[in-house]
Amino acid sequence: MSTIQGNLPEPTLNDDASDGQADTKKGQSQGRIILRRFLRSKVAVAALIIYLLILVFSISAIGIGPIHGWWHYTYKELNPQVNQGAPTLSLWPFSLGEHPFGQDRIGKDYFALTMRGIQNSVLVMVVLGVFATVVGVVVGAIAGYFRGWVDAVLMRITDIFIVIPALVVGAIVGRTAGGLGAFGLAILLGLVSWMVIARLVRAEFLALREREFVEAARVAGASDARIIFRHILPNAVGVIIVASTLLIASAILLETAISYLGFGIKPPDSSLGLLISQNQSAFTTRPWLFWWPALFIVLLALCVNFVGDGLREAFDPRQQRFSLRRTKETEPTEDEAAAQVNAANAANVAGTTIDDGPSRAGVPDGPASDDSAGGDSAGKPDGGGSSGSDKDQS
Amino acid sequence: MVSYIARRIGVSVLILIAASFIMYVLAAHSGDPLQDLEGSSSPNKQALIQARVQSQHLDLPSPVRWLLWLGGVARCIVPIGGGCDLGTTFQNQQVTQLLPEATAATLQLVTVAFVLAVILGVALGMITALRAYSGFDYSITLVSFFLFSLPSFLIAVLLKSFIALGYNNFLADPTLSPLALAVWGVVVGLIVQLIVGGTFRKRALTFVIAGVVTAAILWYMSITKWFTQPSLGPVVVIVFCAAIGFAFVALLAGVHNRKAWLTAGINVAIAIVCYFALQGLLNVSSIGTLIILAIASVVVGLVVGFFVGGYDRGLMMRIGAFTAFFTSGVIVLDRFMRSWPAYMDITNDRPLATVGGATPGLNGDVWITGLDTFTHFLLPTISLLAISFASYTRYSRSGMLEVLGQDYVRTARAKGLPERTVIVRHAFRNMLIPITTLVATDVGALLGGAVITETVFGISGMGRMFVAGLYSTDVNPIMGYFLVVAITAIAFNFLADLTYSALDPRVRVR
Amino acid sequence: MKITRKRVRPVLGAVAVAAAAGMVLAGCTTSTPSSEASSSGKTITMAQVNEVTSFNYNTPQGNLDINGMINYMTQPQFFTLNQKYDIERNTDLGTYKKLSNDPLKVEYTLNKGDKWSDGTAMTADDLLLGWAIGSCYYDSSKTNDNGDVVSGTQYFSTAGGCVYQTDLPKVSNDNRTITFTYKQPYVDWELVNPIQLPAHVVASEIGVSTKDLTKAFMNTPAGDADNPAPANKTLEKAAKFVNTGYDTTSLPKDKKLLVSGGPLVVSAWTPKQSMTLVPNKYYTGKHKVNFGKLVIRFIADANAQVTALQNGEVDAIQPQASADTLKALKAASGVKIQTGDQVAYDHLDLNFKSSVFSDATERQAFLLTIPRDEILKSIVTPINPKAKVLDSQIFLPGQEGYDQSVKQNGSSEFDKVDIAKAKSLLAGKTPTVKILYNSQNPNRVDAFQAIQASAAKAGFKVVDGGSPQWASLLAGGDYDASIFGWVSPGAGNAMLPQLFQIGNGSNYNNFNVKEASDLAVKSQTTLDASKLLDIKMQIDKLAFTNFYGLPLFQSPGLFATNSKLKGVEYFGGQTGLVWNVWDWSK
Predict the structure, then answer these.
(1) Domain boundary among C244, C269, C302
(2) What burial class does residue A318 get, using C-beta atoms within 10 Å of its C-beta: 0-12 exposed, 13-18 middle, 19+ buried?
(3) Taking 50 as the threshold, does the pLDDT of residue A352 lie above it?
(4) I want to staple B393 with a disulfide (CB 3.0 to 4.6 A). Which of A263, B125, B287, C84 is the partner?
């Protein structure tokens, strides 16, 4: 985050009264401010910690690659059925037993399988997210920075990909690439999920490239690449991080859906979606085969969604400015509330200054709330904000 | 404007062509179209393979086949040389014949879910924004994130296993135990106190009242066998109608507007009279009758509003129309309920369906077939609704919060407009602007996502066609599906842009 | 004044609209429809995965199980298979008898009074059409590698292909009897059903009289690929109609396409949802049904079928057999379950052309490591506890000859895994074996994993050759062994040359034992039952002693029905549930 330092044209975000005055102290980089604000959101931090814990747990349990984990079974070996395959996990008194999550039909340890599924699902999430973000940022940056025919061509290409629902193209890609394993699948899915980010980054670039600091850099003789990567990109990082987080959240659901239809990762490897799909007929008879992977899918997706929400609020504090309740309760303990009360009492001046803050970087000439809108809709990579480009052109 | 539309359509067609190329080549290379035959033990395997190769042109490279396919599609627009041709499936079925049937099934499923999701999502989002950072807001946030994180098939499977089978099993002996009554009371009480909010005292009181009332109603329903023989009866119909009138007056005009009371009152009175007068007509109604009655009721509402009118005639007509429409809805609902026992009989007392779109060979009046559609589409619709409305809630919440902080809202408030007017007239309208974009882009996603819901609920719609085509690498049905979805997505995006410019004067289409 | 006028106009409008609405309302009402008549009998609802695509099963594109089921119930059959896959003659339709062995002559006679569902009598014209479709007598076509006809004419294209050749049949004077003279003895002559589609419908669809159609059949010379005669127009049109005219996606407007000669006739079809069949009132034979309506619902998802049965929406299902499905159904109240074997079986084949398995010792050593019992226990036993390991390459348990053949074919050597012996045969070698299988089929994956683990103990390095495209890789031979399944029709001997003849297109593993190959070819012209049995037993033995591979297990099957539905019996053949639809009642 330190790269952000120095590129900001003005001290931003000083209007965010609800965050108190600490944020506006001199010498604090934007990155640190955002980090602080993110850390203040307990739910988001807890979600992040849980997510990392699950990941570490799954990796340490069954190991990764050739390294063995602490769990004594692998997800590949067949074992004799213990307890008719039912889970041996007992919470009180706590004991894991032989197969804490039970066993599948042919006696594989379901704990190991689930852990492997988590690893693969997380791998898909991260690889897809990173890959799609990189592609999206490159496409969006080039389009937004160079404008003209480059922009037109790239955005039409984006439109072409956006026309096809993610699940549909994902199913086709999955069927083609299912044999490639989680990594190959994730890369290919990433190839068809970058469009939303490309659009958001483009919009961001269209606005930022007109700003004075870019002009200054250009006059100073900076190359295009330097301007893009050193000057503009750091300023667009908020939008990118938020959008890619939500993309990651939808990635696990996409992988799950594709595996459910039978076009995803293939056995003997495992993913959470595949486990559910294979065992859906066991729903009433051996529910654990269904519930363990379901639990982790929901948990992982929920964590990422909360982290994404925390990030969004950290990067975009405008939404916290107004609370009807606070206005009504008229408790002027915070500057924010005071400002609101003033506003409500027809003190227009106060309101105006608050609104004039430059934190609205990011939206070019489109209507208000377009960027936060895009951030939200990125949760569904199928086409969030696809009408954006045409508006911006006009 | 015209040139803008022409340009937009031109670009859309080019995009569609390019996307179809990608889709075609991807689909064609996703598997081996001859797999089932190559593994078969049929004595004339070679002949079978050759027959398929010939009919599907599998000997040509996929880009060439795409050109052939595109030629067929072009003939749908320019009628030269034999009309529309989207190719055939491996079973020699014309995709042009399959597609309308499949599309109809899917649209039936998606439309209701979509409309409900938008209405419910926007409404909840608004309420949470107005009560931002309250317990209610946090609970809705949690619930919507939870729904957002649920894989769609999970919710579908759960609904099917627990609600359908569970409720049908419950109907075999429809009595609620005291424990069940207590649980329901507590749950509803908790929810209601969250919505109402306020001080602890107020919340506790709300909780107790709501819980007790809920339990009492359920107990009454249980002892009167309401679940197997539901009906509203005259009293409840009258109460409901009055409540609807009150709600629209309060929402649209405010409780101090006498003219509004008069408009709503007249309409409610007409509705109550109609409830007793029209039963004979309803018994012999067809779908056409119901549509006419619906239109008639709106007209009556408008006319009443017009005559009461006064300085705010438009508003009165709106109140009248809404009141009339929804009160007649109550009457129709009551009539549907009274057909329930007959419908239970037809379905062997297991009304909630788990599969398909209709009971095969059902032969009944509009009430029975209406109930049949209801029981078949209830659960799939809920499962689609649950996952898509979550994003609308989040979206409209943040949109509303943002709008409420704007200058013009402050100005409106500052000049002393009542809170209701500020929210309904100023904030709501502006909040809708960004929602249109989401709505448009969501349509494509929803059509795509329906694949899984269709699979779980055994509805043979477009999604099924796509999945089946993909399993056997049968490209033509896949492309038929793609055409419908892509055109819908493009069309809705276009519509969204037009709506956008209508709602937001800052955006201009060129 | 102005104001009043403004007020009056809408009022008048409203009155006019109300009046109009009232009039339309009166027209729009319906009388209460009578509730479903119960006098016509009960409705039975069953579920099927696929939708009907054609009313003619016997075309390359129409060859789906569901189409076969519909044809089975709506087309006349001279015979049906019983539960043991034996042929049972349907003398209520007509009789057939073998007149002589060499040349093989068979005479078919329709009973007097046989009628199609539109009341038209069945005649030898129908038999002649059936024969013309199945015999390829008129074809004079030559095709290139792409399947394009380069010369001559190809008339009827069938799913089954031209498996027998006869001379032009003789038709009796009363037009009820037809006699086939086969060019060479045909082992499965009893499986030829020379009646399928109504000739009068085909004739009227192409705009000629039945007589003209028959004339065209009688007067067109046999096809000669080297000197093709110009195509007969009538015949060409008839063939084109039969080949594609029955393909449809919804209930055809042309009711002639629905004309049935079986116990049921299609009466309604809601595309994508269900098809309804009602009794054929002109059918008087012993397969008359005991219910009023058969509704077939198309439910693609197997789990959805199970819930639909539990919820009483369907009465009978034939779900994919898995232990969990079975358990879930057992737990449901009012559901009756029947399990059994299908006519399909999974097997491991060794590639005789591969570098490893061209050596018989290594073949033997590998087969000795196959844990057949373990595979059976993990895959089949949970569904069918009575299941046993399959011990014959040719016979299925329950068929005549299975027990006899198992005793002599040498399969007992592989009853148990014998790692020690395998090791000694290998003598320290550690060959690498690549096994091809369908990596998307969990059963095959399980079997592969079990084999991999067991063979490793003897020193084999088993390489995973699993692929979703396994079928197209089968013929390539780039593997040492393969695991896949065969589906046999239950009766007949067409499989023998396919599996054992050297150079046959379906002999994927290049089994090259001359003796077995010759026997397999000979079997196709053997009419004597005991001789045929002897040949089959010999081939079975040769397959084991030459280490062809090993049969693993018969695929398990599962029928589940509502306990109100009576008469459903298990059957493993391709007609599935409906094989005895005439015994059903509710």
Answers:
(1) C244
(2) buried
(3) no
(4) B125
Q: Are C108 and C176 in contact (CB under 8 A)?
A: no
Q: How confident is the model at residue C24 (pLDDT cuts 50, 70, 90)?
A: low
Q: How confident is the model at residue A318 (pLDDT cuts 50, 70, 90)?
A: low
| Distance separating alpha carbons of residues C145 and C512, to the nearest angstrom | 26
Asked if pLDDT for residue A379 goes beyond 70, the answer is no
CA angle B467, B468, B473 (to 5 degrees): 95
Alpha-carbon distance C127 to C109, whole Å?
A: 9
Residues C328 and C200 in one domain: no
In this complex, is the C-beta atom of A384 within 8 Å of any C-beta atom belonging to chain B?
Answer: yes
Q: Are A113 and A87 in contact (CB under 8 A)?
A: no
Kindly give, in sequence order, each residue whose CB lies less than 8 Å from that of residue A361, ignoring residues fewer than 6 positions away. Answer: A12, A207, A208, A235
Residues C175 and C207 grouped into a single domain:
yes
Is residue C325 domain-shared with residue C362, that is, in the same domain?
no
User: What is the spatial distance between Cα C311 and Cα C329, in angstroms, rounded to a whole number?
Assistant: 11
Of chain B, the percentage scoring pLDDT greater than 90 comes to 4
DSSP letter string, B160-209: IIIIIHHHHHHHHS----HHHHHHHHHHHHHHHHHHH--SHHHHHHHHHH
Contact call for B38 and C148, based on CB within 8 A = no
| Chain B residues with CB-CB distance to C469 below 8 A | 31-32, 35
Residue B163 CB-density burial (10 A; 0-12 exposed, 13-18 middle, 19+ buried): middle
Cβ–Cβ below 8 Å for A105 and C328: no
Q: Does C434 touch chain B (CB under 8 A)?
A: no
The 3-state DSSP class for residue B418 equals coil
Same domain for C254 and C238: no
pLDDT exceeds 50 at position A376: no
In this structure, the answer to whether residues C304 and C385 fall within a common structural domain is no
Q: What angle do CA A289, A292, A294 make, to 5 degrees?
A: 100
Q: What is the pLDDT of residues C230-270, one digit of tens each?
A: 888 888 889 889 988 888 878 888 888 999 988 999 998 88
pLDDT, tens digit, 9 for 90 and up, residues B423-468: 877 788 778 877 777 777 677 778 877 888 888 888 878 888 888 8
Contact: C468, A266; criterion CB under 8 Å: yes
| Option in C324, C378, C440 nearest A106 (CB) | C378
C188 with C273, same domain: the answer is no
Domain count, chain C: 3
* Segment A168-176 mean pLDDT: 77
**pLDDT number for residue A64:** 75
Contact C69, C575 (CB under 8 A): yes
For residues B236 and B224, give the distance between their C-alpha atoms in angstroms, rounded to a whole number. 15
Write the secondary structure of B338-354 as one string of H (helix), E (strand) and C (coil): HCHHHHHHHCCCCCCCC
Place of tokens 């009132």: C281
Give Rg (Cα) of chain C.
29
Chain B nearest C-alpha distance from A325 (Å):
6
Average confidence (pLDDT) over B226-248: 86
pLDDT digits (tens, 9 = 90+) for B313-347: 888 888 899 999 999 989 888 888 888 888 888 88
